[in-house]
Amino acid sequence: MTRVKANLLLLLAAAIWGGGFVAQSTAMKAIGPFWFIGLRFAVATLAVLPFVLFEARKAKEKTSARHAKLYILIGLALFGGAATQQVGLQTTTVTNSSFITGLYVVFVPLIAVFFLRRAPHWVIWPGALMAVTGIYLLSGGHLSALTPGDLLTVVCAVFWAIQITLAGTTVSETGRPLALSAVQFAVTAVCALAVAAAVEPVSLSAIWAAAPEILYVGIFSSGVAFVLQVIGQRYTTPSQAAIFLSSEALFGASLAALLLGETMPVTGYAGCALMFIAMLVVELVPGLTRRRLPAA
Question: What's the average model confidence in pLDDT over 50-58?
């Protein structure tokens, strides 16, 4: 596959994920957040299972008990991220959610600094400052204007960062990204359905009303887009992949404006732009500076 085709696959994955924010928001007109999460990830588990079986045939290493425990831990982090994001969408806009969620790009290296004791690249600190400034501008210059949903989505970005950090180290050991995906999806589905059964009413008519969104997010956002990402990243550079995948936030905001009629003041758009630049800077600058270093 050519690099151009690979980048187009990544762009398609980002567009699917951007549409997922709209689907997550509209689904809650019919169904509670935890029922939506549980059913979404149950569908995602089934969608990825055929790929897991194919991966298992070629696997060089069997999944150990330690790896299984890590898979479950990653699933709990995924549940934390999905829950805070979905509940947050009840009191924030799709535009805000899509951009604030993207801050996991900034939080991942910060977690490496504080918990893994890895020396940070210098760009992490200005990137984090830009991200915080972006959130401030998103509030219109008044932090009190941030909704509970905005704050929950910041917590969501932290959970995503934990999930990404754990998943990265685990997959490097096991070489089984699809097996990890299936387990984390299943853990999230079980946790969400347990909470939903305890605290949220549901009916078959409500599930049927939200079925298009559940199927879209379950099959396409979790199943198809994940496979497109895995394929595309094999044939392009990490820097280019970061650019195309981070456009998820732009697709989310654009589709929210087109389909839901969302708008925001100029300061809000400036905040979104600053957060998007922070995401790109944190992803791209370390790779570019490594290229310029002379060979030893």
Answer: 82
